[in-house]
Amino acid sequence: MPNSRFPDRNPLPAAVLFDLGGVFIDVRVEDGLSAFRSLRPELGREQIRSVLLDDGLLGRYERGRIGSRAFHAEAVRRLGAPVSFPDFVRCWGAMLAAPDRRMTGFLRRLDGRALRVALSNTNEIHIRCIGQKYRLLGHFDRRIYSYACGCAKPEPGIYRKALDAAAAEPAACLFVDDRAENVRAARRMGIPSVRFTGSGAFFRFWEERFGRV
Fold this sequence. Notes:
Helix content is 48%, strand content 10%. By secondary structure, it is an alpha/beta fold. The protein folds into two domains: 15-26 and 99-210, 3-Layer(aba) Sandwich (Rossmann fold), CATH 3.40.50.1000; 29-93, DNA polymerase, domain 1, CATH 1.10.150.
């Protein structure tokens, strides 16, 4: 007898477009700031934050308009304190927590059932750190990174690149992101979307909509 709680489950999406930070990996900015402070204790936490998270500098880096070496050089110049590139990479990478095991397991179970697309505003150092430490990225069938494609969410161009990579129509996909503005932008493009607020809520959404994976 069918479960009356889920009377009208939908077929699985042709492709699921996943954000990385905030969905699979917790980005802990304070851990990165602490790493920089431990290296250069004479620098104030807010001073480091204002330099490293400056929309102009970080925005250019995450859109690929400057490379990692140039980002490091400009950040160090603004901080006014010498930090070697290897130390900078280590401290910048300290922002990244280990991937959520429940979400990673879910991603693996989707293999062969829906195309798995990473769609992330990110940068070369963070992607390199994730790739060196974890197997997460290998579970995606396609990977769209802002620094590699020259645009970032919520700009329409990055969603188009993800749809092109998936070779799927917007209505046939599902977009998952923790930021409301990115979800709204995807919906304006006709992509069904859900805001990620935790793995428990996401799994409840998925099972009610599509059933268990």
